[in-house]
TrEMBL record:
Enzyme Commission number, as recorded: 3.4.21.105
Species this chain originates from: Streptomyces hesseae
Source organism phylogeny: Bacteria, Bacillati, Actinomycetota, Actinomycetes, Kitasatosporales
Protein name: Rhomboid family intramembrane serine protease
Entry-linked InterPro entries: Peptidase_S54_rhomboid_dom, Rhomboid-like_sf
Membrane spanning stretches: 6-27, 48-69, 89-112, 124-145, 151-167, 179-207
Length: 219
């Protein structure tokens, strides 16, 4: 295994480990008697997070559609010298098969409602779209000419939550841990991995979202 792979997998582990700690804290902060899995399910309680519901439902429908009609992947994913609109449509298909499809759906179902409870509906959609489209556009420019998936947009939501918590979180040790996520995003960008750009764009937006605003939905 070369150094590029070591750094790539190391960053992935760092984001996953610190991200799990952050999401678990956000899920349990007002219901600490619950286990994190139950608290994560509680994020789907009423009032139902509308943006998260819409995102998950859309990705489920698109996942079924691409399974029934595999040609849809080629029609929407990034292509070398592809049209600009593919930076948007590449978020709608999962080009690496069943594992990517199921993993991304599960990740979105966990991250999106927690992001919406913190940021509100339109801000969650803004972070998801801006992070995802930016990462796809840069990929089309040379980082990764062909492919598709919404994991870069999910990374944006995780990045936004990390810098938001680093600025406003109540647990000092976890605030420091949260900063591992944008740091890993920077390393991934140096490795020209598009997930790093998703993390950094989301992290930058999270700094802005950490400024005082209207109270979000209760977690």
């Amino acid at each position: 295994m070369n150094m590029h792979s070591v750094l790539l997998y190391g960053c992935a582990v760092a984001v996953i480990v610190s991200g799990i700690q952050l999401l678990a804290r956000l899920a349990t902060k007002d219901c600490e008697e619950m286990s994190p899995p139950l608290a994560l399910l509680r994020a789907w309680r009423q009032p139902l997070p509308r943006a998260a519901t819409g995102l998950v439902a859309t990705m489920v429908v698109l996942g079924v559609a691409q399974t029934a009609a595999p040609a849809m992947i080629d029609a929407l994913e990034r292509h070398p010298h592809g049209a600009w609109w593919r930076a948007v449509t590449a978020l709608m298909v999962q080009s690496s098969g069943w594992f990517q499809l199921l993993f991304n759906l599960a990740a979105l179902a966990v991250v999106a409602p927690l992001a919406e409870r913190q940021f509100g509906s339109w801000r969650t959609l803004l972070v998801f779209t801006a992070s995802g489209v930016t990462a796809q556009a840069v990929s089309m420019a040379g980082w990764s000419l062909q492919g598709g998936g919404d994991s870069v947009a999910i990374c944006g939501l995780v990045g936004a939550l990390s810098t938001w918590y680093a600025a406003r979180g109540s647990v000092v040790a976890l605030r420091r841990v949260a900063l591992v996520i944008p740091a890993a995003g920077l390393v991934l960008c140096l490795l020209t991995n598009n997930h790093g750009l998703g993390l950094l764009v989301g992290s930058a937006l999270g700094v802005g979202l950490a400024t005082p605003a209207r109270p979000p939905l209760a977690v």
